[in-house]
Design goal:
The chain is α/β, with parallel strands linked by helices. The protein is built from 17 helices and 14 strands. α6 (139-152) links the parallel β4 and β5 (156-160).
């Protein structure tokens, strides 16, 4: 097994480091051209184009009658999966719901000198959730995206996910949908799913916002339709950065790196450590554990996107992890409580040896839809707030008008906007 390894001093070249990470997944012009063609066809031709694209790309012969999953199939899916899996999905749903209930936001108002102002908070009306398929099945993605939408109060939620070769949606996905009482599941994947939800077709109504991760075609499509609909974020390949010292267990670190690498398709796993002895042990444990995992794409991910960074001390490591701004950050040092306040940029922070990324991915409660590609510098995990819309509110009486008018008229005229000033002055005169 090969994995890149570098050493960084205190004054490392940030831009050179970031260029090594190869995060420019969205700069593929050929794929972007394909995505734009798909979106244009769906926008202009609706169902006709959608069904043709599904047949061409996914090999599925769908019609308006069989594009959605029947209610009885969603309901009966639970009988076709293992009981332990069903119970685990229920536990995860409860944990995720409990966590996200702390994120609720309510309308608020304040009154002052003849004026009432505030913020009116309402849920989005219709949301589309994309649940990826293909290499694996992701019921956790459905739970993580639907639950905060439901807590926000969204009434109309649709799910799009690829069907298998037999034209069916995986029973585990359907069971997760059933647990959350989701009735609308469509057998659509890829950029075509994003286009159908963004523009609407004769079969699938337009949504207000699309959330959920996907492959590069899905991400490029979300980027293209933003503005027509809202999106959560542009999610690239999954990432983990682990900061560890000489007291860390190399076997645990290797397991976290492989857990990330098995996502495949550009998944990034990075170890930052001030212990060269630990670096060598981790490489040995990676070799050992690679032999026992079932998905063989982990080795390629480690070779292409894995990295071990040796630093002179943990403070340099802090600078490095803040420069990277990873999706997942694992603090596995003896003094992580002292380090935590110095972390500036990360999608999710997992502190201590027992805080496996997988716990957060599935059932601890925090959302696993996280900013990648360094976007943690300006964005946040998916939350209830992503499914709310806010309107500012202002009500002014005569007293408030007299209080504000001189200030507003002066600023408006300074900006050369006489009509603005006049709209206030006329109101004052009408109150005389």
């Amino acid at each position: 097994m090969s994995i890149r390894q570098i050493s960084l001093a205190k004054y490392f070249d940030k831009e050179k480091l970031l260029s090594m990470l190869n995060r420019n997944m969205l700069e593929d012009e050929a794929k972007l051209k394909q995505v734009r063609s798909i979106l244009k066809q769906i926008r202009t031709q609706g169902d006709k184009a959608l069904f043709e694209i599904l047949k061409q790309i996914e090999g599925q012969d769908f019609t308006a009658e069989n594009l959605s999953v029947e209610a009885r199939d969603i309901k009966n899916a639970v009988s076709r999966i293992e009981k332990d899996l069903y119970k685990s999905l229920q536990v995860a749903a409860r944990k995720i719901k409990k966590y996200h209930q702390n994120q609720t936001v309510k309308s608020w108002f304040v009154e002052e000198k003849g004026m009432k102002s505030g913020m009116i908070v309402r849920p989005l009306e219709r949301v589309g959730i994309y649940v990826p398929g293909g290499e694996a099945t992701y019921p956790s993605t459905l739970l993580m995206n639907v639950i905060p939408a439901q807590i926000a109060g969204v009434k109309d939620i649709v799910v799009c996910t690829p069907a298998n070769a037999e034209g069916k949606v995986n029973d585990v996905i359907l069971t997760a949908a059933n647990i959350l009482n989701i009735k609308k599941v469509y057998k659509i994947g890829g950029a075509q799913a994003i286009g159908a939800m963004a523009y609407g077709t004769q079969t699938l109504s337009k949504v207000d916002k699309i959330t959920g991760p996907g492959n590069i075609y899905v991400t490029l499509a979300k980027k293209e339709v933003f503005g027509t609909v809202g999106i959560d974020m542009l999610a690239g390949p999954s990432e983990v950065v682990i900061l560890a010292d000489d007291e860390a267990n190399p076997e645990i670190i290797a397991s976290d790196m492989l857990a990330q690498a098995e996502h495949g398709s550009g998944a990034m796993a990075i170890l930052i450590t001030d212990s060269k002895e630990l670096s060598e042990k981790v490489k040995t444990d990676l070799e050992t554990q690679l032999k026992i995992i079932s998905r063989n794409n982990a080795q390629k991910s480690l070779a292409d996107f894995g990295l071990i960074i040796d630093v002179s001390d943990i403070n340099v490591g802090l600078d490095v992890l803040n420069a990277i701004g990873a999706e997942h950050l694992v603090l596995y040092t003896s003094n992580y409580t002292d380090i935590l306040p110095k972390v500036k940029t990360a999608g999710a922070i997992l502190a201590g040896k027992n805080s496996a990324v997988a716990l957060g991915d599935y059932a601890a409660g925090p959302n696993h839809t996280l900013p990648t590609m360094g976007n943690a510098a300006f964005s946040s995990p998916l939350s209830v707030d992503d499914f709310l819309k806010k309107s500012s509110f202002l009500e002014v009486n005569e007293e408030g008008l007299e209080e504000l008018a001189p200030t507003v008229e002066t600023i408006a005229r300074a900006e050369g906007l006489d009509a603005h000033a006049n709209s206030v002055e006329i109101r004052r005169k009408s109150n005389d």
